[in-house]
Amino acid sequence: MSNLHLRTCAIPILVVALCALVAAGCQSEAPAPSGGESSIVITIPEDPPSFNGLVTDAGFDSLVMELVLQSVTDIDPQGNIFPELAAGLPTLENGGVVIDEDTGAMDVTWTLRDDVRWADGEPLTAADVLFTWEAISDPEGGIWLQGSDYIDSVEQIDDTTFVVHYTSVFPGYLTQFGGDQVVIWPAHYCDAAQGFVAWDCNRQPLSSGPYVLTEWVTGDHLTFARNPEYTGAVTPSIDQIIVRVVPEPAVRRTLLTRGDADLDVWVTESGLEELKEAEGLTTSLAPTSRWVFRLFPNLVARGTTDPAGTPHPVFSDVRVRQAMRMAIDVDTINQQVFFGYGKPVWTEFFRPPYDVCEVARPAYDPAAAAALLEEAGWVDSDGDGVRECRGCGTAEDGTPMAFELATYGEYGPELEQAHQLVGEMLGAIGMQPSLRIVQGTVMWADAASGGTEQNGEFDLDMYDDGYPGVDPTDHLYFYYHSYSAEPDNGFNVGRWINPDFDALLDEAYTLDEDIRRELFCQMAEILDAELPQILLFSAVNAEVHADRLQGIQSTANDMVTWNVAAWTLAE
Amino acid sequence: MLKYVIRRLLQFIPLLFLVSIGLFALMNATPGGPLAAHGGSRHVNPQRAEQLRRQLGLDQPIALQYVIWLVGNDWMKVDADGDGLAESRGERRGVLRGDFGFSYRTRQPVMDEIAQRLPNTIYLMGVTLVVVALIAIPIGVLSAVRQYSKFDLTATTLAFAGQAIPEFWLGLILILVFYGWLNNPFTGDPLLPAGGMHTLGAPFSVLDWVRHLILPVTMGAVGWVAWYSRFLRSGMLDVMHQDYLRTARAKGVPERRVIYRHALRNALIPLLTIFALDIPYIIAGSLYVELIFSWPGMGRLYYDAATQRDYPLLMAILIITATTTAVCNLLADLGYSVLDPRIRYE
């Protein structure tokens, strides 16, 4: 054959070869477990750092942790705490909790189920709980855990019984070794010498949960098989779970719609909107939300951190903060940017079981907001649309009502659009916000690392935050207590000081739920009047899954995999 | 020649030392820090922050952190338990002894993390570069030889389009068309996979691996083909009118030989520089391709390390990339002398 022939034929040959290659690839993208076993694919955007949700607290670690490891207790989507490894919940009433009236110390006696085994057949006992606590509390290789400041010691009584000795009352004791971060680790398998944060079993866990890890190709996928030793209340019916790492949200959604993925986690509002008409898919919404978009006004002069120092020229006057709240149309932002999936939130006490306080929803009333600013001494005297201080008392006369409104970039376009809308709404009442987007790793870094909030280098920040679990006490302490106004002591970065609030919060460290509710409602009133933070609306907590995958229930209190053993596949 | 190579290699040592100081200083001078990536809540609890600072070695002055990164801390005593007393020896051996430290995020040795990703990136980018060379070189040569022909005009137009198309957008469109819309006529399944290196759970098949390469290689290659072919075209046009080619023709050398033996060889010299500087991509990976096609490679590892301030991982990737760049520059210089005997290094 001549060269000419070769050249002429080359292109058709190549095309035919390519087509043959494509056509020959008859395998579906769906996983193909052997022997007709049932299998599902969960997509997540990034690799879990490990199976230890307490170390990095990235979310993805806890998500896979729930597949293989168990906690003493867990929290359901409604906020009810239920025993997982425990045989029951210790309370004052059943004698499981004893408080020493003289010293204030608290002992909590836990009894474990006696039928739980590790995947290698070894029994899970109180010795494993003690081992886990010692590893966590080791100052060298451990990690700080909520409530650990109150723990004096953990004592093993027998194979199924252990006592946690607290130095004082800790209201969150029921999830001390539970929730979405803490699980019990096997004493006979993990090497304590390697340290809790770095031991090998964080990445090669020995399972006590419904599934065992069979393969982990980092950055690509993790494969799990049913754990034959699992003795939970429900026996898992799905044989294999593949957790596939797919960074791009559009690709995750396409995999879902083509049936090559069964569950996409933490779907954003725009993703929900895009998928709501898709055939064969169901959205699961958490009954409550954790993350609340909010404004954090700095009450002291920018660049300072002393609560008693120079007040912030704009935000130190409570009337300005009240006017801002009235000027922001939460419903419009929710509809325009979050497709109506958000829910208006105006108090910290909006989640069960503490959603009992009667705090009226603030009205959207820009005219009243403008009047309040006039009253506070902020007047647009030169008609340029921006108010100036005219007797405001917190700045020199003539100072324009200008400030920086910052948010963080990692959340994505939704927050950036909401940020712009808030800026426009504040501008409409004569304020002059300049918008800025910074990295979260800069905004929330510690003082020594140049964190803008800890160093007071901000005027008004906007982002989402909320507390894990169901106990808000520590969250309130770190956000509103005067102790937390000191740089790096906590997150009271607005430097809001209120001794009455401090006293109520200190009292709230009690187990008497009636007293706690009463105290929380008093705190709610103070927060509503003083507005150290301006709460706007909650973000959605949702997952989208294939119709064939049943039993999915999104939750703000845990990961969606909290009830993985109960998931089933429809025929 | 050998002397020259040794001299150049020795020059790398102070160069990499300076680069490492510069990178370390820049990284730490950037506002923010790794602790903020360690909280499920937006802020890190103060007690946790203090413990993390100690465990990650961030409680030391920056200069000392660099020294520890370089030579380790097993020669000094450290305060591992935070009681204020430095009572135990450190465990780090330092980069000079092959220890790049551990990832802040996974607490795994940095080199283990890189070793898991590097082969995947070399595989993808190596295939992409070969495909680029196989397509771009013939297009560049033909465009120059048949200047202003229909082929040249078409290639030029497509090259401009190829350079102008945003890579990210192209990848999404490829997935939409070849995965989302088009089906395999025999099975009804998507025509090509949307990502990953192979079908999960399926037995090994070369065909399956090749199918997973088609879209990411296409996405990665389009811009490169456009750029290389244009570059080679102008290089060829430069040498096509040189005297030595006229001489070759006058001596009766066949035109094919003139083009491929005499012209292309000289036109490749400037292209070699570009190519050599692109070789580090084989190590560093292509972020967008890896993000869109869920490819577990170095680009994503670097991106995650940068956004989460995983300094040891970031430093290791940057140093490896810097070293590769330096070595490839040397290789390019040596390549000149192979292609052009007039170039000599002493």
Shape of chain A: globular
Quick one: how many beta strands of chain A?
A: 23
- Sheet with the most strands of chain A? 7 strands, mixed
Beta-strand residue fraction of chain A: 15-25%
Rg of chain A, alpha carbons: 27 Å
- The order of strands across the largest sheet of chain A is 8-9-10-1-11-21-12
| Amino-to-carboxy terminus distance of chain B | 6 Å
The largest β sheet of chain B comes out as: 2 strands, antiparallel
What value does the Rg of chain B take, in angstroms? 25 Å
Describe the structure.
Chain A is of the alpha+beta class and 571 residues long. In chain A, 25% of the residues lie in helices and 18% in strands. Chain A is built from 13 helices and 23 strands. Chain A has a seven-stranded mixed sheet with strand order 8-9-10-1-11-21-12, with helices on both faces. In chain A, β15 (378-379) and β16 (388-389) form a beta hairpin. Mean pLDDT of chain A is 91; it is low at 1-16 and 18-32. Chain B is mostly helical and 346 residues long. Chain B has helices spanning 2-29, 46-56, 62-71, 110-145, 150-164, 167-181, 206-240, 243-250, 255-278, 280-284, 287-292, 298-307, 311-339; strands at 77-78, 88-89. A two-stranded antiparallel ribbon of chain B has the order 1-2. Chain B is flat, with a radius of gyration of 25 Å. The interface between A and B is large, with 84 and 77 residues.
